[in-house]
């Protein structure tokens, strides 16, 4: 940590506030929608709208992102998405939920496509895998606290007010608390200084790379991101409902389950630098992604909550271990003046390709769950994750 620059530390601090602030929306928002009377179809459609709104912004950033100061993208994105999340917590009608979802979806990629290039610009190439590992670990560590609190806050509010712990008002209290914490993530990035313009001889880490080679890398990263996002989009938007509807878990238990998964992933992240040093970046990511597939199948088919959670923890740890490696590998191959563009196209959850794939997966999954159940639908994610891994390795 001491070797990192002050701007990199400010970006890290912002992420430490954003992560626990978003956790209540991961743990509770679908349950909140169910309590409002909405079905899995509308929940899937809402996730699809989020992804499509993200897609529009990411596509715009693909053309404009490298011309706009990244610190301003970060600031505007955090402020707008915090307001969008607060609105999602207060509005209950279809139109209001859709409108607030569009605001959150549009603003999320503004900061997300900027923060990796920001960290890259304020760090040296030889320390980036370490820096990205620290950021990923910090994100997970604060997510542990956020998930645990998200599961506990409805009960806390119910104890204070006498309302039902799984009622709309209790869920809303937790969601608003999360939106407030998320908005505080704006404060550190207000102090990020103006980015330094790269010198001619350092505008790319690999000056010998041709434009065709760079374009090929971007196409490959984008294709992999789309395949993985479709598989992930089949699973994550409905994971809290999977635990509650299929396995009968309580809300507080779901929060602790998500917190435990982040804790396991946090510990596993520290193994990443050693693995990449021994196996290299591509082999490490390929091995981790192939290893997680049996655990995903086990979670989908598990007959009990405890067994499903054990498989989920293994899957989550392996899945999260790949992110710092892929980010460092991607930033090393792409010239500095193309990094916002490639992040806007292939960045996890906020890129054009992942957003489009997630939108399709979410809309389809909500309908398939009603017809075939959670287990069968979750198994459909495996072929997409497998093919995406093979393309990445190739």
Q: Can you offer a commentary on this structure?
A:
The chain is mainly α and 394 residues long. It has a single domain, classed as Growth Hormone, Chain: A. It is built from 17 helices and no strands. α3 runs antiparallel to α6. The longest helix is centred in the middle third of the chain and has 34 residues. The two termini are 34 Å apart. About 3% of the residues have low confidence.
Number of domains: 1
Q: Helical percent range?
A: over 70%
Q: How many DSSP E strands? A: 0
In CATH terms, the superfamily is MFS general substrate transporter like domains
Radius of gyration: 20 Å
Largest sheet: none
Strand percentage: under 5%
Mean pLDDT level: 84
SSE string: HHHHHHHHHHHHHHHHH
The CATH topology annotation reads as Growth Hormone, Chain: A
Low-confidence stretches: 199-208
Q: Layout of SSEs?
A:
Blueprint: H1 6-35, H2 40-64, H3 70-90, H4 94-121, H5 128-161, H6 168-184, H7 186-189, H8 211-235, H9 239-246, H10 251-269, H11 272-279, H12 281-301, H13 305-333, H14 339-346, H15 352-372, H16 374-379, H17 381-393
In short:
The chain is mainly alpha-helical. It contains 17 helices and no strands. The longest helix is centred in the middle third of the chain and has 34 residues, at 128-161.
């Amino acid at each position: 940590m001491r070797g990192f620059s002050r701007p990199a530390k400010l970006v890290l601090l912002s992420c430490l506030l954003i992560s626990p602030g978003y956790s209540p929306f991961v743990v509770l928002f679908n349950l909140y929608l169910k309590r409002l009377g909405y079905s899995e179809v509308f929940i899937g459609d809402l996730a699809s709208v989020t992804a499509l709104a993200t897609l529009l912004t990411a596509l715009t950033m693909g053309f404009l992102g490298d011309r706009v100061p990244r610190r301003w993208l970060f600031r505007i994105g955090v402020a707008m998405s915090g307001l969008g999340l607060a609105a999602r917590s207060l509005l209950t009608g279809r139109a209001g939920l859709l409108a607030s979802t569009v605001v959150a979806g549009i603003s999320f990629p503004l900061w997300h496509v900027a923060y990796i290039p920001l960290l890259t610009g304020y760090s040296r190439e030889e320390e980036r895998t370490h820096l990205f590992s620290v950021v990923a670990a910090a994100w997970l560590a604060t997510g542990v606290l956020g998930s645990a609190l998200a599961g506990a806050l409805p009960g806390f509010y119910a104890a204070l007010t006498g309302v039902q712990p799984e009622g709309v008002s209790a869920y809303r209290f937790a969601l608003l608390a999360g939106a407030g914490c998320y908005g505080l993530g704006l404060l550190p990035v207000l102090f990020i200084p103006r980015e330094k313009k790269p010198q001619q001889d350092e505008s790319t880490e690999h000056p010998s790379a041709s434009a065709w080679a760079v374009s090929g890398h971007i196409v490959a990263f984008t294709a992999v991101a789309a395949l993985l996002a479709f598989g992930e989009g089949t699973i994550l938007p409905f994971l809290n409902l999977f635990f509650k509807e299929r396995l009968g878990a309580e809300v507080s238990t779901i929060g602790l389950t998500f917190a435990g998964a982040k804790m396991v992933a946090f510990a596993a992240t520290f193994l990443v630098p050693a693995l990449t040093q021994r196996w290299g970046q591509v082999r490490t990511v390929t091995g981790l992604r192939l290893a997680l597939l049996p655990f995903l199948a086990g979670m989908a088919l598990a007959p009990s909550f405890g067994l499903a959670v054990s498989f989920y923890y293994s899957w989550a740890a392996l899945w999260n271990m790949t992110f710092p490696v892929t980010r460092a590998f991607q930033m090393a191959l792409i010239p500095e003046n193309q990094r916002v563009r490639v992040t806007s196209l292939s960045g996890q959850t906020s890129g054009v390709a992942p957003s489009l794939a997630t939108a399709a997966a979410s809309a389809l999954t909500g309908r398939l769950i009603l017809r075939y159940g959670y287990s069968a639908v979750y198994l459909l994610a495996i072929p997409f994750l497998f093919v995406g891994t093979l393309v990445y390795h190739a």
